[in-house]
Design brief:
single chain, about 750 residues, alpha+beta, 17 helices, binds alpha-L-fucopyranose
Length: about 750
């Protein structure tokens, strides 16, 4: 082949792959369920009695914050699992037994039956996370068939559009199946499922199908269509859940609302629905753009399930960028104002006995879900978390006041504040062991929402009262040691070792609470005396020590415990890194302020390693901790391991196993920490840039103090930074050892070069 021909082939080849080349598309050559399997729930680790199916491994998720769809892409039988985030069994669960806490349920399935589409060619299934659209396409009997799916926040509905390149090609049926066996009612072009759960929660889903050409009619409990050119299916769903304890968590019957939503949407043209959806989605998603460099043509040419395994071994910048944006896509899709927060599975669930009830876990998981919200510029997506927590406070107070575990130091039952068990539902009910300091860890989120966005009203009305109440709880519960040091009594480093006084996890979290409270009181200029009292208590809290081999101690005293021989040895590869809370997400330990403790934290983390019990979300946390320790290469190594089949599903959901979503959110936050940090009163640019990302750029990351920042780097060095100030606050910048203070007016931006000039 001469040079000219070779060039022509190369151009053709790259043009051929270009249609698959977007870095923001997950794509597959087969429907969900027929791919090679990856390990699911094989390790027997406390699954809360539940299981996740292989479908969770491969289905493609769409969602509008409240309602979700999980798409299989089967040509002859499409299955879209339907979820609605308030469909929960359970109640206030006074026993605290997690077996009676209830669980997140599946709403049902939409099935589209297309007989004759069994043998297809040119099959492709994809999820375009840049546009929040999923697609299926294939050829059958000489006709090209396509499906497009989205779940619109703007109109509150899930939409499926079926098209073909030849008229009259669609003949088949549509089913709406309820996962609690209610009987579907089919009437004209509508299917309705409604029922109630054992706890009385009412739910309803409705589907309206609109055909172009051909015919469509109700038949039995299905809709049958013949010789249609195209079809649009619109689904709405709801429950009578209300996030309000005073109303016993029940509100309006969903029937009228669901009917109105589905009718209104079905009356619109498909393109109008789609463009409203796009407008809404882009208004959030487009705030942040990341470019980590180019992937190779070979990497780009591979479908996601094959590409991801290789990315665990060889750096694939495009896929790393996709992983970052996937966390943002998923958060936008499952956590929007007015809905419930992201649970262990986001909101995607195909099993009425899901693993760990698909609940809210307080000892790392739900917090990690919300780590990216502020830095990755999706602050409003955190609203459901604040709303749910506030709606649960009254029942949590009641449960805490009745718990003998929370007698105060003077022996009285708890009278102020509340504590949280490891698991909770949406009805004020909790389950499993108390996670004593989760109340304070949740407080960090309330504080950070203010620290990033500067919303004084939120601070005054929402964050401050929360922080103060939890401070009062700890004021009543801390124990003074003979030397005057204060410790959290009888605490547990999550799911690891013995419960003792003063474990580092709890000490660090209470320190963080007190520290945030002091800053909150200062920002509002209120409660001077109480603020000073809490500041003094903060300074008396026992701080984590350094052990015999230089590690940061997880318990107050180094463990030599025959019951747990591995503790405080280099053989301890436990998945939790609770004692490193102070590095991330806390800020008590840092390279600049407490270098010895920071070094000890690194010694501990290196020893914990990434094998054995280390799984899924652990890698995301480790990425963020290494980044805070300014160790970019180790941070990147942890990130890369999320691509292995051991740690992620084929649809890139985190794989614990089973599927869990915290790691997806956590890694997005970890990547933010690699690129920029702002927890020490300055904006630190590229504090942990790994060698794997020599050249790149990021736009729109958020820094505390209400700034957004764009950064460009080349050959591992900062080239430019543009800081947009939304509040006109003083701005302290750092790049390596270079620092600079600048004044940027509210609403203005300043561009600086590589030496911050
Ligand atoms: C915590 C973790 C487990 C798992 C579960 C849902 O209990 O220790 O690893 O993520 O939550």
């Amino acid at each position: 082949m001469n040079k000219k021909n070779l060039l022509a082939v190369l151009v053709l080849l790259s043009a051929g792959t270009a249609s698959f080349a977007s870095d923001l598309v997950l794509w597959y050559q087969q429907p969900a369920g027929v791919t090679r399997t990856v390990p699911m729930a094989t390790n027997g680790l406390g699954l809360g009695g539940g299981r996740a199916s292989a479908f969770m491994n491969e289905g493609l998720p769409i969602g509008n914050g409240r309602m979700g769809g999980f798409i299989s892409g089967g040509p002859a039988r499409e299955r879209v699992v339907l979820n609605e985030d308030s469909l929960w069994t359970g109640d206030e669960n006074p026993s605290g037994d997690d077996n009676t806490m209830g669980a997140y349920q599946v709403l049902g399935n939409v099935f589209i039956n297309l007989p004759g589409h069994e043998n297809v060619t040119d099959y492709r299934r994809d999820l375009d996370i840049g546009d929040a659209l999923a697609h299926v396409s294939y050829e059958s009997g000489g006709v090209k068939f396509s499906r497009e799916f989205f779940c619109s926040h703007a109109d509150g509905v899930l939409v499926v559009r079926l098209t073909a390149d030849k008229p009259g090609s669609y003949t088949g049926s549509i089913e709406l199946s309820d996962s609690h066996n209610s009987q579907t009612v089919a009437k004209k072009n509508r299917l309705t499922d409604s029922g109630s759960l054992t706890n009385g929660l009412k739910y309803e889903s409705q589907l309206i199908a609109v055909n172009d050409g051909g015919s469509l009619e109700a038949s039995g409990s299905t809709l049958e269509f013949k010789n249609c050119d195209s079809l649009t299916l619109v689904v709405a769903a709801g429950t009578d859940y209300a996030m309000d304890y005073a109303k016993k968590f029940r509100g309006e019957d969903p029937h009228a609302r669901v009917a109105k939503q589905v009718e209104k949407a079905a009356a619109q043209k498909y393109d109008a629905l789609k463009s409203e959806h796009e407008k809404d989605f882009h208004s959030l998603f487009d705030r942040v753009a990341l470019d980590l460099g180019k992937s190779s043509a070979e990497q780009i040419a591979l479908p996601t399930d094959q590409r991801k395994v290789k990315a665990a071994e060889t750096v694939d910048p495009g896929l790393e960028e996709l992983l970052f944006q996937y966390g943002r896509y998923l958060l936008i899709s499952c956590s929007r104002p007015g809905g419930l927060p992201a649970n262990l599975q986001g909101l995607w669930n195909d099993n009425n006995r899901p693993p760990w009830h698909s609940d809210y876990h307080a000892n790392i998981n739900v917090e990690m879900n919300y780590w990216p919200a502020e830095p990755a510029n999706l602050a409003e997506c955190a609203t459901p978390f604040f709303d749910l927590v506030q709606s649960q406070l009254e029942p949590w107070r009641k449960a805490t006041a009745a718990a003998k575990e929370f007698k105060t130091q003077s022996g009285a039952m708890a009278a102020r504040g509340f504590a949280i068990r490891t698991s909770h539902n949406i009805y004020g009910g909790m389950g499993w062991k108390w996670d004593n300091t989760a109340n304070a860890w949740y407080g960090l989120h309330f504080w950070e929402h203010y620290a990033f966005g500067g919303d004084k009203k939120f601070l005054k009305q929402t964050a401050y009262p929360y922080l103060k109440e939890v401070c009062e709880f700890w004021e009543d519960h801390l124990k003074a040691l003979p030397d005057g040091k204060l410790v959290v009594p009888d605490a547990w480093s999550p799911e690891h070792g013995p419960a003792e006084d003063g474990v580092s996890y709890s000490q660090e979290i209470v320190w963080d609470l007190f520290n945030n409270y002091v800053e909150a009181a200062d920002a509002l200029g209120v409660d001077k005396d109480y603020r000073d009292k809490i500041a003094a208590m903060r300074d008396k809290l026992a701080t984590p020590g350094i052990g015999s081999w230089g590690q940061l101690l997880e318990w107050m005293n180094e463990q030599h415990n025959p019951k747990y021989p591995e503790l405080d040895t280099t053989n301890d590869h436990h998945r939790h890194t609770s004692h490193l809370f102070a590095v991330h997400p806390g800020r008590q330990i840092s390279v600049a302020k407490t270098p010895e403790l920071a070094h000890a934290a690194k010694v501990s983390l290196d020893a914990r390693g990434d094998t054995g019990d280390v799984r899924e979300w652990s890698f995301a946390w480790r990425t963020a901790i290494y980044a805070r320790l300014h160790d970019g290469n180790d941070a990147h190594r942890e990130l890369q391991q999320l691509f292995s089949d051991r740690n992620s599903c084929l649809n890139l959901f985190g794989l614990h196993p089973p599927m869990q979503m915290d790691g997806n959110f956590g890694i997005t936050a970890g990547i933010c920490e690699i690129l920029m940090q702002s927890h020490e009163g300055e904006i630190n640019l590229l504090p942990a840039l790994p060698a794997a990302w020599p050249t790149g750029s990021v736009k729109g990351l958020r820094a505390r103090g209400n700034f957004t920042v764009d950064i460009e780097w080349q050959n591992g060095k900062l080239v430019s930074a543009t800081v947009h100030s939304l509040d006109g606050n003083p701005c302290h910048l750092r790049y390596g050892n270079v620092t600079r203070e600048v004044k940027i007016k509210k609403g203005a931006a300043l561009q600086l070069g590589g030496s911050l000039k």
